[in-house]
Amino acid sequence: MMKIIVDVFSGDDPKALIRGTAAAVNVYPDVHFIMPGDPTCLERELAECDYDRSRLEILPASEIIGNDESPTMAIRQKRDSSLVRGAALLRSDPEVGGMISAGSTGAILCCGIFVVGRLRGIDRPALAPVLPTVNGGNVCLIDCGANADCRSEYLAQFALLGTSLMRTLCKVDDPRVALVNVGVEGHKGNMLTSQTAALLSEMPVNFVGNMEARDALSGKYDVLVCDGFVGNVLLKSIEGTAANVASEMAEILRRKMPGGAAEELIAEAAHEVMRNYDYNSYGGAYLLGCRKPIEKIHGASNERTIPYAVGQMRSMILAGLTESIASQLEEMSRGHGETR
Amino acid sequence: MMKIIVDVFSGDDPKALIRGTAAAVNVYPDVHFIMPGDPTCLERELAECDYDRSRLEILPASEIIGNDESPTMAIRQKRDSSLVRGAALLRSDPEVGGMISAGSTGAILCCGIFVVGRLRGIDRPALAPVLPTVNGGNVCLIDCGANADCRSEYLAQFALLGTSLMRTLCKVDDPRVALVNVGVEGHKGNMLTSQTAALLSEMPVNFVGNMEARDALSGKYDVLVCDGFVGNVLLKSIEGTAANVASEMAEILRRKMPGGAAEELIAEAAHEVMRNYDYNSYGGAYLLGCRKPIEKIHGASNERTIPYAVGQMRSMILAGLTESIASQLEEMSRGHGETR
């Protein structure tokens, strides 16, 4: 039976995430759950839930890594934290398929690098959410926040990781890779994008050129490559703008169509649109480039996030994503001599 | 009488912009217009327009700087281009208050630096649109694309420029300056933001800390400081997302409320919202930090853009923006010893 670790204690509201994990036990009968954390606290909260206890195991861990701690220091000093214990088990137990954590990006990245370990050929694991496009498809944004300062070699590796992810998870044969830039023209950009564009055009990925941020969700691209700072700004501005625009349009329509029936339909529509852009409710973002799959869910995730994230992790494990990435990296580096 | 230069030839559709300028002549009876460019082409197009010819002057210029040219090379080699001729007149004629150009950001920036000249204390002029916030206010995003690679000193100067702009143009007493970042926590960010945050907290601006991209238009800030790459991604992702969300919500509502009357109101509402986020139709972005005001309008601007942009430029000149920025820079550097 597939084993998945769920680290709830690194999040803002562990209790809600514990209830969410119990709910996930019921949704996925083929998954065995492991929860690192304080047993007393876990038992107390789980006692209130109705679920199959035989498929939920507690991994004692007395410490919690907070969102405001220095990631490298915290990983080194808090060996008995839920995140480090979970990562160590993920690394050592071949039966454990993956880990979901509500911890900070920095702490998860450090655990991925120093505890779980990187795949051969990867300098920096990257955070990659898969977002819905306007034409019903998907696009992978990599990196969306793990590496604020990047070298062009990292971005080139992100292109490989994103390509593998979209091939494996979304069954896209030859993912179109675009470089997030300030213009589509070749000469536009900063030093990082100029160097990256040169590298990408030499790599065994389907590099289609520069992309302007307004086309991120256009469906014209499958993988969007950028440094973690730019990716984070892009993702959050999409989220924020979607919420603003949906409310503004609802407000305008309520003035144009006063009355109860219309009001309800308008509210429903606004809600529906916002849900499409609320990446928090989507589950998580994949930390790609480590030896085992890790999924980061938002610190402010709620009960409903967990079953969704477990579903995503389960799919990744079933699809053999990491093995597939590793073999594609191997193949690419063999086929290409080297990637750097 | 106030003189404003309008460089239409650097845009995608000069003819439309010529008609737009003729329209602006009629809208602003207190403005004298100067159009650099090919006299034959200008006369031919203007012959079709109905406007007060006594307030429109042609400044012969035989060349055009294209969007795909290297800015520094183009400025040096095309001395007789509409942009360079306009910039030279802006520099030399005290009666000319400002220039509007549809040229590329790079070319306009180069003209600003090498032809018009920078204000004392400014290393890099920056492009700053003033955007509407969700609560009916305004926010200045600086830099939104002039400087793709920045040092922290540039960003610190952007904070000064944005502060002056919001004081002068929007009458905000003590503009709240935020640093665009990946999290509000002090330790988050990349090398550039860490260095910039340290500088900003020592400067005579009202630095309120980091801002996440989702809060850009929240109205909690008056000036958003970032490098031109990040600013451009932020601006374009807001534009793109707004258009996507408005169409999606209209689509959902059309399904929920079939019928002609509702359909029309929904289309109207979508149109109204999109207009708020179509920064192209807004007129332009200010190139701040030069000795005279320059306004960049989008290359794809249309006829209606010009009167709007002229209105903005006219306000800037009437408010004495550049003089005010210069004196505030002077005062800040006096009051603070030095800004670097």
The backbone outline of chain A, from C-alpha atoms, is globular
| Share of helix of chain A, binned | 40-55%
* Count, helices of chain A: 11
Biggest beta sheet summary of chain A: 7 strands, mixed
Content-based structural category of chain A: alpha/beta
Task: Kindly report the oligomeric state of this protein.
Answer: homodimer
The Rg value of chain A, from CA coordinates, equals 21 Å
Mean pLDDT of chain A: 92
User: Can you tell me the residue ranges of chain A where pLDDT is under 50 for at least 5 consecutive residues?
Assistant: none
Order of helices and strands of chain A: EHEHEHHEHEEEHEHEEHHEEHH
Strand content of chain A: 15-25%
Identify the biggest protein-protein contact and residues per side: A-B, 60 and 60 residues
N/C terminus separation of chain A? 39 Å
Strand order of the largest sheet of chain A: 3-2-1-4-12-11-5
Q: Let me know the number of strands of chain A.
A: 12
Helices and strands, with pairings:
The structure is a homodimer of 340-residue chains.
Chain A lengths: L1 E6 L6 H14 L3 E7 L1 H8 L9 E5 L10 H7 L4 H11 L3 E6 L3 H12 L9 E3 L1 E3 L5 E5 L9 H19 L5 E6 L9 H10 L5 E7 L10 E3 L2 H29 L3 H18 L6 E5 L5 E4 L7 H14 L2 H16 L4
Helix pairs in contact in A: 1-10, 3-5, 4-5, 6-7, 6-11, 8-9
Please describe the structure with a list of short key phrases separated by commas or semicolons.
homodimer; 340 residues; alpha/beta; 12 strands
